[in-house]
Amino acid sequence: MDNKDSQAPDVIAQKDQRSDRSFDTIADHFEKKVYGGLKGDIRLAVLRRDIFAYVNQMSQKLGRPLHILDVGAGLAQIAIELAAQGHTVVVNDISANMLAKAKVSAEQAQATENISWYVCPYQQLEEQLAAENVEKFDLILCHALLEWLAEPVAVMDFFDKHLTDNGALSLCFYNPASFDYRNLIMGNFNLLDTLLHKDDNQADNKKSLTPNHPVAKQEVESWLQQHHYQTLLTSGLRVFHDYSPLKRGGHNDPEAVIRMELRYSQQEPYKWLGRYLHILASR
Ligand SMILES: C[S@@+](CC[C@H](N)C(=O)[O-])C[C@H]1O[C@@H](n2cnc3c(N)ncnc32)[C@H](O)[C@@H]1O
């Protein structure tokens, strides 16, 4: 399919001096830090399990491949695997560097035929999709994007416009409770005291992968309710791995860690301490 690369400005939204965060300058760093090891493997294992089961079921019910959109896709691993399974996928990111890496993976997976690429802020996607007569999707993936947006709630209106009537949303976002809990375990009480009086976690380090504007689970749930979604499932991503200061016992076996993360990712109360939360919801 065609390439639809357009100018992707680094900063696209200004609100109270906040701006959306393009990963253009930290694409290599992100790839290595987030997906270069076990952390990324756990993240992908949980998302694959949650999403592929739903996609298979929906695709069988509809008797056709699904039409899927991935916004803020980054390296787009899940979207590429879905394309390799035969679904039609639209991949978007504000960062050309991130999508350049995703394109290499798509070629390796021989999945390019089913993918269209849109380098632009998601806020400009509507215009570009309309020009191609592409409007509605059976499933929208929005993973680890919310916490990097200047105005995260605005993305809910975008989903409303672009999901089919029975469409589903796979929303994965950074869990601010995990930040507090990890710092409690590490004894970083001064940091927690300081942040108590600050609006958000504005990171000073330009390379930091700790989100500046995390959104609490309760807030995301209230948006989903206001927009008439029904939750199909919720999982926690990395519910114990990041909290363990000592790599002892089963922690020495990466496959065992993934197996246990998968098991506890859907169990109360552990899942609510995941570094990220995944909500699959339909309308
Ligand atoms: C933390 S990464 C997540 C990437 C991928 N979804 C994942 O889960 O691995 C956030 C991505 O959102 C992109 N992004 C930030 N603001 C955006 C916007 N307004 N529209 C589209 N993408 C955006 C960044 O460039 C970055 O690639």
TrEMBL record:
Residues the record lists as binding S-adenosyl-L-methionine: R43, G72, A73, D93, H143
Taxon lineage: Bacteria, Pseudomonadati, Pseudomonadota, Gammaproteobacteria, Moraxellales
Sorted UniProt keywords: Methyltransferase, S-adenosyl-L-methionine, Transferase, tRNA processing
Catalysis: reaction(s): 5-carboxymethoxyuridine(34) in tRNA + S-adenosyl-L-methionine = 5-methoxycarbonylmethoxyuridine(34) in tRNA + S-adenosyl-L-homocysteine
Recorded GO MF terms: tRNA (5-carboxymethoxyuridine(34)-5-O)-methyltransferase activity
GO terms (BP aspect): methylation; tRNA modification
EC number: 2.1.1.-
PANTHER family from the UniProt entry: TRANS-ACONITATE 2-METHYLTRANSFERASE-RELATED
Its job: Catalyzes the methylation of 5-carboxymethoxyuridine (cmo5U) to form 5-methoxycarbonylmethoxyuridine (mcmo5U) at position 34 in tRNAs.
CDD domains in the cross-refs: AdoMet_MTases
SUPFAM superfamilies in alphabetical order: S-adenosyl-L-methionine-dependent methyltransferases
Name by which UniProt lists this protein: tRNA 5-carboxymethoxyuridine methyltransferase
Family: Belongs to the class I-like SAM-binding methyltransferase superfamily. CmoM family.
InterPro entries: Cmo5U_methylTrfase, Methyltransf_12, SAM-dependent_MTases_sf
Any Pfam family matching the protein: Methyltransf_12
Domain Methyltransferase type: 69-169
